[in-house]
Amino acid sequence: MILVFTAILCGILAGIVTGLTPGIHINLVAVLLVTASPVLAVYFPVLALAAFIISMSVVHTFLDSIPSIFLGAPDAATALGVLPGHRYLLKGWGLMAVKLTIIGSLGAAVLSVVLFPLFVLVVTYAYPLFKLVMGWLLVAVALFMILRDRKKLWAALVFLLAGTLGVIVLNIKGLENPLFPLLSGLFGVSTLLISLNDNTAIPPQTTSDPKIKVKKSLGIKALVSGQFSGFLTAMLPGLGAATAAVLSLQITRDLGDHGYMILQGSIGTVNFILSLATLLVLDKARNGSIIAVQQLVETVSVPHIIVYLAVTLIAAGIGACLALWIGRFFSRIISKVNYQGLVWGIIFFIIFLTPILSSWTGVLILLTATALGVIPATVKVARVHAMGCLLLPVMLFFLL
Questions:
Q1: What's the CA gap between 105 and 265, in Å, rounded?
Q2: Closest CA to 102 of 229, 264, 245, 224
Q3: Rounded to two decimals, what is the model's pTM?
Q4: Could you tell me if 263 and 232 are in contact, meaning their C-beta atoms sit under 8 angstroms apart?
Q5: How far apart are CA 246 and CA 248, in angstroms?
Q6: Is residue 88 within 8 Å of residue 68, measured between CB atoms?
Q7: How far apart (Å, rounded) are the C-alpha atoms in residues 126 and 83?
Q8: Exposed, middle or buried by CB within 10 Å (0-12, 13-18, 19+), for 207?
Q9: What is the pLDDT of residues 48-72, one digit of tens each?
Q10: For residues 71 and 105, what is the distance between their CA atoms, to the nearest angstrom?
């Protein structure tokens, strides 16, 4: 048990690094650990190695919203949260945005563990049905998104352009980390360039634990929506967290920025926990971390899952405290930094990371995605249509 707790602590430290550093994903660390597992197994039991991956993954879901809120640097799970998070930041409420995502992540962790037996039953009996209708459900969602926009033609054009770009990028053979330049361009760099054009400056941030007035009904609605999103991503292949968030937004409308940030915080946590249910029932892994756990522990049984859920709750509690502390730290220093210089620094950092993570082809993707990402703000349509970059490829995956 001492070795297991040591592994949990190391996993938490790794989760801090992956959560706060754009471009360093938990899948990369998980793959490195699996590669080194023959050596590590001499010193650590397999259960401890699995605990490392689980604690790292859970802490990552608590911290990955911080770069998107304060720096505008998204990953696949936080892409849609960049714009609402940026609004909080520009009002001096960056810490409030972080606290809302903590509420979402912690609430999702507790609720997912409580509902875990129910989800095991649902996965067992509903998986074949969902797989059959998923493609048409995504078509309906895309049409609904476009038709509810006031500028329907522009909305359709943005969706189709982003979707075409996504299909091309995700089918480039040998391209590593294709989502990094794609999402960084569509939602990160484009948002930062627009803020530069508007001569934006970061105001002093409220750091004295701002009171958050959220109706219980809104919080419950956001958490239930997050459970639905996480359930879809955990059960269906090819469906990412951002795509599921789009689905949830069409079902649970009128969340407002508070509710949306809670939803944003919950999705990644729910996705990871419920992936354990698909691993137990279907013997299928739905994300890189669970694949790594599956490779370490060939046969996963109920006792394994109980230990994994216990590790999840421990990591969630510590992750919430870390996110709050780090959020306060960012709030204290962010307004003291020259905003224009910070934005250019982030843009150049993303450009610097792109060829390292995705080769020089990634730079071309980044430039193309950035140009496309500026369109929604320019023509005044919802930025969510740019999620066609993931929706359309997944739609085609299920229909063809």
A1: 5
A2: 264
A3: 0.75
A4: no
A5: 5
A6: no
A7: 35
A8: middle
A9: 888 999 999 999 989 988 887 877 6
A10: 20
